[in-house]
Amino acid sequence: MRTTALALGIILLATAAGCAGNREQQGLADADGGYTAPASIYSVMDPTSLVYTDVSAGSSPGDNPWRWTGFLLHPLGVAADFAVNRPFYTLTSKMPYLFGYTSEDAMIDGQRR
Predict the structure, then answer these.
(1) Residue 18 neighbours by CB under 8 Å, 6+ apart
(2) DSSP per residue over 57-88, as a string?
(3) What values do phi and psi take at 45, rounded to 5?
(4) What is the rounded distance in angstroms from the CA atom of residue 96 to the CA atom of residue 3?
(5) Phi/psi of residue 22, each to 5°?
(6) Pairwise CA distance, residues 37 & 34, whole Å
(7) For the chain, what are the domain ranges?
(8) CA–CA dist 22, 47 (Å, integer)
(9) Closest CA to 112 of 84, 92, 82
């Protein structure tokens, strides 16, 4: 168990190091002594930033590898949702008093696509 946890921790640390930024750019900025202005004064997370700036200019040039892993595993998650979650919601909705199925559960199940 400890070996698995250690290996997983090393992998997480190795992939997280890519999120820290580009050292070459930082070195150039330090040597230049100047301030490099961001692409925009608006946050990339701000929905109005699409109007005021190019969102891709504010994003990092390289994506995190966990994002690509998420893209690849997404179909498995959708399949698990259809195979496990939805049948349980259907079963429990037939006998709400036995399973504690509430109106909130019905609302959540009704919002599924």
Answers:
(1) 62, 64, 65
(2) HHS-SS--HHHHHHHHHHHHHHHHIIIIIHHH
(3) -80, -10
(4) 45
(5) -95, 120
(6) 9
(7) 22-62, 63-113
(8) 26
(9) 82
Q: What pLDDT tens digit does each residue of the chain (113 aa) get?
A: 788 888 887 877 777 655 555 555 556 555 666 666 665 565 656 666 556 556 566 556 666 788 888 889 999 999 999 999 889 888 888 988 898 888 888 888 888 77
Which two three-digit tokens encode residue 113? 């696509």
Dist. CA 91–CA 87, nearest whole Å: 6
Task: Please give the structure tokens belonging to residue 64.
Answer: 């995190």
Residue 44: CB atoms within 10 A of its CB come to 16
Asked whether the beta carbons of 77 and 103 are under 8 A apart, the reply is no
Beta strands in the chain (DSSP E): none
Q: Please state, in angstroms and rounded to a whole number, the distance separating the CA atoms of residues 56 and 39.
A: 9
Which candidate, 68, 77, 72, 58, places its Cα nearest to that of 15?
68
Phi, psi of 108 (to 5 degrees): -65, -45
Supply 59's token pair.
């994003």
pTM across the whole model: 0.40
